[in-house]
Amino acid sequence: MTELEKYIISQLKQLVPDTDDFEVRANIGDKSYSMEFFASINGVKHQCYDMIDKGIFEEKAFDTIAKQIAEHIRNCPEYHSGKINKFYFVIKP
Questions:
Q1: Cα 28 from Cα 77, distance rounded (Å)
Q2: How far is it, in rounded angstroms, from Cα 91 to Cα 93?
Q3: What is the span of the domain harbouring residue 52?
Q4: Fewer CB atoms inside 10 Å of the end CB: C or N, the chain?
């Protein structure tokens, strides 16, 4: 697992602390970002927006963490300014 992946997982675990199973997609640009993740809870895979709808965590908390992740990525050596940077990874225990 890369340092960037470790950082992202540490942030997402604030929302879903009881899982080590994540699938993460992020598109980060200089002025915009989008992020989506899936996490397994009790063996059932859930999409982040479904978890918000089900009350597992608050949308505001997700928005705050997604913004922090985007800002962190923009400061990483992997980030290429002027382009949409696409990140995808899966972490399974």
A1: 14
A2: 7
A3: 3-25+34-91
A4: C
